[in-house]
Design goal:
It is a single chain. By secondary structure, this protein is an alpha/beta fold. The protein has a 7-stranded parallel sheet. The chain has a 6-stranded parallel sheet with strand order 12-11-10-13-14-15, sandwiched between helices. It starts with a helix and ends with a helix. The chain has 15 helices and 15 strands.
Length: 424
């Protein structure tokens, strides 16, 4: 027994050392594999509907990680599209990155009745072996996106749709068509919570991320904060006195914007004895009718049609001097512009007929929502909002905070990479 014990101990030590070496070997293999995966530079392509100027800050920030871990390329047509939304100048195309350039492949978009149905280069993109993931704008009427997404899935690429989702007002045929389309993707980036909730209710179970929309809010906030009080005071005094309430609308003068409802509300408020003025910024097919309606309500001295203002800084000045921004129809980026200025927003509450930016309007914090097409409810919400402003419940800070937290390029970048990295 005594002679056998040293042999057993010696064998045990040898076995222990062998197991330790084997464990270290496999640990090293796993670590090396993880390092290789972590250090791999993935190639990601973003195919927006258009390279709108307001998206530049977000795409630039997302692309800034190209040199660190991912290669980002934008596929976009540099030409202005029928929407007339300002486009990023193609001078930024492949310019030296630190000078503001974007890694950008120029493609062409083709339209039927102002609706884009085809983007060139997408079929080649779907077949490419050099791309790991493609983020398409999730618009189901684009035939090229359908075909490219199918090819991307067949060739092993990850597919993401950046989309509004569904609104909840689609016909049965349109709903089935869109759900088939969204099921082509591995995951979805959504502009708002409403779209996500509608997709979940329709049975879509894939990963969905609410990415919101974004402006270059820090740059705009810096501009707004640089405005002199005397400059703002003088601008406001052109249109109203110290005792007047001042409303602003900014957008296209179209029927769906329901400016007739706002004029009726102002007439109602004025008849109750409250002094109120309205500045209308924008142009469109309804302008002549609205000017006639203004006269019918005897508001010629209270409503100012300023026409279109293409300079964002000019629009921001008017939103800054306003007590309230009102968009009685759908509201889009105007809500974000107003909130950056610390100005609360009112729009309607029917989310099936709204833009996703309406979710930046938080009741009692950054504005109010009224019952769609109900002029009495609109009047009530305007007056309630005035009271909330006067009592300090709604403030400059409460309005701006909503945008600065959830509607920035930084927020979009964080959500974008969370979605991409969960796939790759």
């Amino acid at each position: 027994m005594l002679t056998f014990q040293p042999v057993v101990l010696q064998e045990a030590r040898v076995f222990y050392h062998c197991m330790r070496e084997l464990r270290l070997f496999f640990q090293t293999k796993v670590i090396n594999k993880n390092l290789i995966m972590k250090n791999k530079q993935y190639s990601i392509v973003i195919v927006p509907d258009r390279f709108a100027h307001y998206r530049y800050a977000s795409f630039k920030l997302i692309s800034s990680l190209r040199m660190k871990s991912h290669k980002i390329t934008i596929y976009a047509d540099p030409r202005e599209d029928p929407s007339k939304i300002p486009i990023v100048p193609d001078t930024f195309c492949n310019m030296y990155f630190s000078s503001g350039g974007i890694f950008w492949k120029k493609i062409k978009s083709y339209y039927i009745r102002n609706v884009c149905f085809w983007q060139t280069e997408l079929l080649s993109l779907g077949l490419s072996k050099d791309v790991d993931a493609v983020v398409y704008w999730g618009e189901a009427h684009r035939i090229s996106t359908w075909l490219s997404a199918i090819l991307s899935r067949i060739t092993g690429k990850k597919v993401v749709f950046w989309t509004h989702g569904i609104y909840g007002r689609e016909s049965k045929v349109k709903l089935i068509f869109r759900l088939l389309f969204y099921n082509l993707a591995n995951s979805l980036l959504l502009y708002g919570r409403h779209g996500k909730q509608q997709l979940e209710a329709a049975g879509i179970s894939k990963k969905m991320y609410v990415i919101n929309n974004a402006l270059d809010v820090r740059k705009q906030a810096q501009y707004v904060d640089s405005l002199e009080n005397s400059q703002l005071h003088n601008l406001r005094n052109i249109y109203c006195t110290e005792n007047d309430r001042l409303l602003v609308f900014a957008g296209r003068l179209e029927r769906k914007k329901r400016l007739d409802l706002l004029l009726a509300a102002i007439s109602n408020i004025k008849s109750s004895g409250e002094a109120i003025k309205l500045i209308v910024i924008g142009d469109g097919g309804e302008r002549d009718k609205l000017e006639v309606l203004t006269k019918a309500f005897h508001l010629e001295k209270d409503v100012f049609f300023l026409g279109p203002k293409y300079n964002d800084q000019v629009v921001l000045q008017f939103l800054r001097i306003a007590d309230l921004c009102v968009s009685p129809g759908e509201v889009g980026l105007t809500a974000m512009h107003a909130l950056i200025c610390g100005t609360p927003v009112i729009s309607h509450s029917d989310l099936t007929k709204q833009m996703p930016e309406v979710e930046s309007i938080r009741s009692g914090i950054s504005g109010f929502l009224f019952e769609r097409n109900n002029v009495n409810c609109l009047v009530n919400k305007i007056q309630v909002c005035f009271s909330a402003i006067d009592s300090g419940i709604i403030t400059f800070g409460s309005c701006r905070r909503v945008v600065m937290k959830f509607y920035t390029p930084e927020y979009q970048c964080k959500v974008f990479y969370r979605a991409i990295e969960n796939l790759l």
